[in-house]
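Progress note, project year one: complex with benzoyl coenzyme A.
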Amino acid sequence: MYGQETDPDYPTKLAEFEARIARGEKIEPGDWMPERYRKQLVRMISQHAHSEVVGMLPEGAWITRAPNLRRKQVLLAKVQDEAGHGQYLYHAAETLGATREEMLQALLTGQAKYSSIFNYPTVTWSDMGAIGWLVDGAAIMNQTMLAQCSYGPYSRAMVRICAEEGFHKKQGQEMIIQYAQGTPEQKAMAQDSINRFWWPTLMMFGPHDSASTNSDELTRWGIKTKSNDQLRQEFVNELVPLLHALGLEVPDPDLRYDEESGNWISGEINWNEFWQVVKGNGPMNAARLQARQEAHDNGRWVREALAAYAERDV
Ligand code: BYC
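Model obtained:
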């Protein structure tokens, strides 16, 4: 597809492609697509896949420390689901010509991004609740939109992922509800988790629309149908009343309700912190990549065995 725009038929093909999107048709792997559309999707889907895989680490660390068997089973199932999400998403990116090896290499060398949220530590058990309710809750908001996106394999992966994330969100919410209504120590633990995860969760939605470099292209081609700020606002509007109803505080002294718009208006996010984390300087970036590298190295024998099996004489 090199030099696609020099093709004399490019304007016609582009117009047909955009007309298909405007009609709500899905673009499928073998279909003609602008090179920028393919690149944007590979970028976003592979980052999303990496987020699912790296996202297993903060929760996986608590499987052995779950307070009872029920919680352990639920957490195990959740972490296993995230591995599955990574698989669906890597497959979706492969339909666009990206190889698994190059995507994993980009992750392990620190070239590829993954969601900033997973570069924060999980220091108490109720962080499992905060991740489920806030982080998966934020992810669902974004992914429900992506389930409508114009690229068929990505949108279909999202339908299934959202169904599973719904369970993840509910188990986290149930945990925070229980602790908020439990002993003073449990309530303080839940509040502390909310305090630490609130702002990083708001950062998950990405920079303000005015600073979002990819949004114009993604919106033009039906990949994003809501903006970063719009989704973030929907999340804040949903969560604030629920947290208040539990007697929990939102750690934002500037938070206020705007009667006219019906929105809860947040104070300003610490964008310096956000960009530091995105650039690899967050509290857990180095530890996350090291853990992924170790897992990759430990899995080498499995990849070699699979490759040998695929090449065997039949
Ligand atoms: N973290 O132009 P913008 C989960 C980057 S996992 C890091 O607005 P875009 C779960 C962005 O990549 C769910 N980087 O970007 C798993 C761009 O840099 P590049 C994860 C971020 O793409 C396990 C630059 O900033 N969900 O649910 O229009 C356990 C400018 O941003 C972030 C997804 O991955 C960030 N938060 O919008 C529990 C959803 N935000 O790439 C739970 C798919 C921005 O140009 N992704 N950047 O170098 C998306 O929807 C979009 O990519 C984003 C950003 C909304 C994240």
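The mean pLDDT is 97.
Residues 43-44, 47-48, 51-52, 55, 82, 113, 115-116, 131, 135-136, 139, 142, 203-207, 212-215, 218, 228, 278 surround benzoyl coenzyme A (CB under 6 Å).
No further modelling is planned for this target in the current period.
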